Amino acid sequence: LKVAYKKSKTGFYITRFDLNLGRLYRASDVALSRAGASTIFELSYFGIPPCLVPYPFASDRHQEYNAEYLLSKGAAVMIPESQLVADNFIKKTRNIFVNKENMLEKKYVNILEIGVGSGAISISIALEIDDILTNHKPLSGKSDLSWHLLAIDNNCSALKIAEKNAEDTLDSNK
Questions:
Q1: Is 100 or 36 the better-scoring residue by pLDDT?
Q2: How many CB atoms lie within 10 A of CB 104?
Q3: What is the biggest distance separating any 2 CA atoms in the chain, rounded to whole angstroms?
Q4: From CA 66, how far away is CA 70, in angstroms rounded?
Q5: Is the pTM here over 0.85, yes or no?
Q6: Whether 111 contacts 125, CB under 8 Å
Q7: How far is 21 from 150, CA to CA, in rounded Å?
Q8: What average pLDDT does range 20-41 have in this prediction?
Q9: 89 neighbors 79 (Cβ within 8 angstroms)
Q10: Which of 7, 86, 95, 107 could form a disulfide with 124 if both were Cys (CB 3.0 to 4.6 A apart)?
Q11: Burial of 24 (0-12, 13-18, 19+ CB in 10 A)
Q12: d(Cα 60, Cα 46) in Å, to the nearest integer?
């Protein structure tokens, strides 16, 4: 993925899952994540607004209930897995970047994807952001704002697949 992201206008940082997630959380402005209780607690602790994608096969739909609760309190946005595409992510999280007070002084926005898997979502987000920066009004209203994707996964095989998918996809979009 590192090679592929270099070809896009979106910055990147991809790493294998490690126990010191605090440094990645502290560097993040928004997270794309499942809706398990531990992850929600960690994101809340670090004050990171989440875009939650509940795991549809979680026992007793507990991730869906977790996400719906935060959504009802205005503390998260939710995208069902069946609707998870890059433009939905950007549309649902756009207000975070436009309205968040500290964004006015920031020169970049960091998006943390927890569990990059095949890389499809990170690749799509990178391509969608590239398209917006090239052809449309900037998401934040600031033309000099840079975008960075922070993607982590604990599965080395998944990271290799993601890297191949990114190279193939971004090469074909030149």
A1: 36
A2: 10
A3: 45
A4: 7
A5: no
A6: yes
A7: 11
A8: 87
A9: yes
A10: 86
A11: buried
A12: 27
Judge whether 10 and 147 are in contact, CB under 8 Å: yes
Q: CA-to-CA distance for 122 and 115, rounded, in angstroms?
A: 10
* Three-state SS letters, the chain: CHHHHHCCCCEEEEEECCCCCHHHHHCCCEEEECCCHHHHHHHHHCCCCEEECCCCCCHHHHHHHHHHHHHHCCCCEECCHHHCCHHHHHHHHHHHHHHCHHHHCCCEEEEEEECCCCCHHHHHHHHHHHHHHHHCCCCCCCCCCEEEEEEEECCHHHHHHHHHHHHHHHHHCC
Q: Categorize the per-residue pLDDT at 62 as very low, low, confident or very high, splitting at 50, 70 and 90.
A: very high
